[in-house]
Records
---
Amino acid sequence: MTNMWLLLCLVTSAFSLKTLEPPPPEASARSSTNITEGWLPVRLNHFDASNTDTFQMRYYYNSQFSRGPYIVIFVGGEWSISPGWVRSGLAYELAERIGAGLFYTEHRYYGLTRPTNGTTVAEMRYLSVDQALGDLAQFIEYVRSDDFEGGRFRNARVALFGCSYAGSMATWMKLGYPHLVRTSLSDSGPLHAQQDFPEYLEVIATALRVQGSQQCVDDIESAMKRINELIETEAGLDTVSTLFNTCSRLRRSHLDLSTFFWYGITETFAYLVQYATPGDIPRACDHITNKTLGDPIERLSSWVTSQPYTQPCIESRYFEKVASHTNTSYDSPDATMRLWTYQTCTEYGWYQTTTSSRQPFLNTVPLEYFHQMCKDFFNDSIDENLLRSAIVRTNRLFAGLEHLPDGVLSVGGGHDPWSPVGPNKTHETHLAPVYVVDGVSHCRAIRPTGSSETEQLEITKQSSLLFMEGLMTDTRSSSAPLLASRLLVLALVILYATF
């Protein structure tokens, strides 16, 4: 699975940090091989009764444990779904515990769920989280009806699992459709929309410092300062182009230089930290601080150019990026990134700028770079004014971090760069617990129990299952699941302390 993940990174643009399916775990030894791929006609526009157009929404279904009135759904995000997440993972384990049907839904416009002929701006008018939540609502109503397997899940209780943006959807689904969803787990789900998101790189700096060393952060900053000195001259541009293996010679254009710094350097560290497994960050910092490999810029460049995400070369030409992301075919190499970029430009922002001084990448990628990208990828109407209005709307509709719905369990990693726009312990209530797992990154809690990187992560997974099982089966009173999960945490901590 690790090799497949690296292969995906090789062929995927750096901006699509959030457009790859979380790599599915190995199939459980108990898993059935009889996984069904299904299609459901859903409404194109859930908010216009006069529009009766529909499209086919794809899903996977594992009926292996279906014996009770329960449905567990792994929510698909901005990626193409595959059967792996109905064969293993935390959602699979909850389905096994309570005897639920297990489903995996695909988000409109992504994968093979294609509502339109292409992805022109006009055709993407129905690409929004509002409409995607409407798809989920219609899907749940269908599975709970007599039309699905003769009413097998008639009026069944529903649990949702989601990670990253799909985790946001799992939370917002419980907020917007509480009559359809009993409980949700959101792993690493960002909830607060904002244009400028410099905190992302601040968390990366913290992870490099804690798991690597302060020297690692200092050497990156020294290298960045040297790069900025070199690009002031033509000879220096040649040197940087050679060191970092750019696809063409760097030019002293603000857009090209921001493209180089973002795609080539900051996003390479984003991949490292966001998808880190134990040992990844220390190994990177060992290389970056190894003085036998040259001065800081030589060490940084040799590490960056050795990463799978920068192969075969670093594309620094801004308008080459624009050209590849204005292709409106669903089958174009950058179709998924085009779709997700549209959502960021019209709903969320979350642009990972270098506007903070608490990170080592200097001020090399300003917010204006992303404003320009939105206009150039789409059209001049997709500008910063639209984005500001869209962000106000998103936070007004879904409450940002002001309110967590009852029955939603939120998990975040202490070194997840997305954690600053997700919930923390200050946001939890007794019916909406929040777990922040020290030292781990993005989307680690949806993976199977028994394979956790840390004891705290394993305890969090076990507590999450207990909380959700209690709400789904009514085996405890409404306030007992959180208390029981806290007691489980205490018991496991004591158990681990004895070894």
---
Amino acid sequence: MSLEHPILLYQFPPALGLPISESPPCAKVEAYLRLTRTPYELAVGDTRRSPNKMVPFVRWPRGHLQAESSEIIAALEPRAALNADLCPTRLLAGQELARQVEEVVYDACLYDRFVVVEGWRYQRPITRALIAHFLPTALLTPATALVRRQQIRRARRGVMRAPGTGYRIACLTIARVEALLADEPFLGGPRPATVDCAIWANLIHTAATPNDSPTRRTLRASSPLMDWLLRMGESAGWDVDPATIGRFL
């Protein structure tokens, strides 16, 4: 795909002290755009205008909209070639692991922020501020409550229906990410790959979750993964405060 003009990335704003979108799928796409030096501009995403009613979505230079983070990256990869010359076996293992992270670890993070009472105490003002971009003040309280109910249903759609089991699977998945990283600087090997973007976007949000949880403890206990989170952020040109993700150097 030839890009004569910047693409427009619609996403949710940053939160919790991170320089990236509060939405892991949005952060995944923006990380890819930065790593591949793809020209882009940002706008706050109104899900009512999205093709799949979710963020992220992009407006391509010719005007059409496209949603779903993996499909956006797949459309760019033939030109941007982030995975070029990386080990195919390693990439295949990373892609399978990324699918599990985006399902299990993502749902655990949603559970931490929207279901757990302490988590909602932190998340509520973030959600309310986001909704304020689109709705009048009189509707903010009921709309915020509605979003919470929707996210609770979403968090409980899979393994987090049984939180004990869900957290255990999510923690095992995080351990598998550490095993794949091994002694390499990135999951792709010597440099970042598309799987780094996908997994990093989810794990950095897990690490930055303000309230304690089994997944946050597991991740923060892994020095290799915490260093990788910071390394990925730096590679994409973001200044991630180590304290924000619990990495006290």
